[in-house]
Amino acid sequence: MTAVSRVAIVGSGVAGTAAAILLAEGGVHVDVFEQKPDLSTLGSGITLQGNALRVFDRLGVWERVKEAGYTFDVLGLRAPGPDAQVIAQIPDAPTGGPEYPATLGMYRPDLARILADRATELGARIHYGTTVTSFTQDPDGVDVTLSDGSTGRYDVLIGADGLHSSIRKQLGIETEPQRTGMGIWRAFVPRPAEVTHTDLYYGGGVYIAGYCPTSDDMMYAYLVEPAQDRHLLSPEEGVEVMKELSRSYGGPWNEIRESLGEASRVNYTWFTKHVVPDAWNRGRVVIIGDAAHSCPPTIAQGAAQAAEDALVLSELLLSRDAIDQSLWDAFHARRLPRATQVVEASVQLGQWQIDHEQDADVPGLVRRIAMLVSEPA
Question: Which of 154, 295, 349, 374 is deepest in the core (most CB within 10 A)?
């Protein structure tokens, strides 16, 4: 007999849907409560490293993800300027193991759809336009009150509700995401034929310019600048800003710049960092994914770490016959040190750019994290 028979999950992002898939597969009654009215997902593209792909295989969605995305095994470095000289092409570490590509890019809403479809196929119920407004707990379970006024009782409540997690706040956890000093412009654009992997351009008009193919036809492009308030800009103004910032970069950026327009879904967000430094649970309520930790996308590990949280938590809930302190201790021992190292490394890479650090051991830091995440969570 498993420790849980009924679980409520708040949030339908990677962490929430991954947990829903694994728990529903294990015979648990799962209700996912998502505040958004539908499956719509902000963003253009996402870069997934091999350790994320390894988890997606466990979720039973790897073939769908591979079909929807674009795989590659090298990382390119180019110089800013009109010639966009190729400085190096570096083999990317296959952190998921030799059976998976090192990296996959895909359209972020496609990933959301694949995960949600898999969860519902296995019997999980996703309730859109609904969230948990309050909860109380006792030694045997958690009583939740929903935004539609209804109530329910569950063995465990999982807060997978993102950076500004309501569940985290209701638990009284004071750790909040902090800005790192960088902001990122992203756009979804047609893929130039010469783009077959991610290229990064360091320096020039912004800290970092880059792109990642997401399919045979499309990719997302991004520019990382000093963080500033861009929220009052209209979509049309955002396109013009991105065009102007990209003028320091040649090569594929010439074609990217010409293709930027209304259909590019240009958006701007700040880089943030946080790790809840102690227990991620209070009793039978636990937070995972961006609710528990966030990092800049400098090592492309955000989704991977969220998926790993879900994998480890679900494994423990399904393999134990009681929800006790030993379960939570095992969860934190496997997740807190690993997530902390990833966050700290991601922040350090960005800080070296902010400080214009010339002697930083970027390859050494990236290699260390690749070795860490190559080991299964």
Answer: 295
CA–CA separation, 257 and 267 (whole Å):
15
Token representation of residue 345: 């490394």
Tell me the three state secondary structure of residue 126.
strand
User: Which pLDDT score is estimated for 189?
Assistant: 97
pLDDT value, residue 116? 97
C-beta of residue 159 within 8 angstroms of C-beta of residue 288 = yes
Q: 374: burial class by Cβ within 10 Å (0-12, 13-18, 19+)?
A: middle
**Residue 155 included in any domain:** yes
304 is written with which tokens? 């991977």
Q: How far is CA 177 from CA 46, 162, 182, 281, in A?
A: 20, 10, 13, 18
Backbone phi and psi for residue 280, each to the nearest 5 degrees, phi listed first = -90, 0
pLDDT at 41: 60
Low-confidence ranges of the chain (pLDDT < 50): none
For residue 249, tell me if it sits in a domain: no
**Cross-strand partners of 110:** none
What does the alpha-carbon distance between residue 155 and residue 309 come to, in Å, rounded to a whole number? 18
Q: Answer whether residue 315 is part of any domain.
A: yes
DSSP assigned state of 124: -
**Is 86 among the domain residues?**
no
Q: Domain tally for the chain? A: 1
pLDDT value at position 2?
86
In the chain, the amino acid numbered 311 is: L
Burial bucket for residue 340 (CB in 10 Å: 0-12, 13-18, 19+): middle
CA distance 173 to 20: 24
Query: Cα-flanking dihedrals φ and ψ of residue 104, to 5°?
Result: -140, 130
Sequence letter at residue 42? L
CB-CB contact of 297 with 349 (8 Å): no
Beta bridge partners of 30: 7
Identify whether the C-beta of residue 32 lies closer than 8 Å to the C-beta of residue 179: no
Domain that residue 149 falls in: 6-66+105-177+273-374
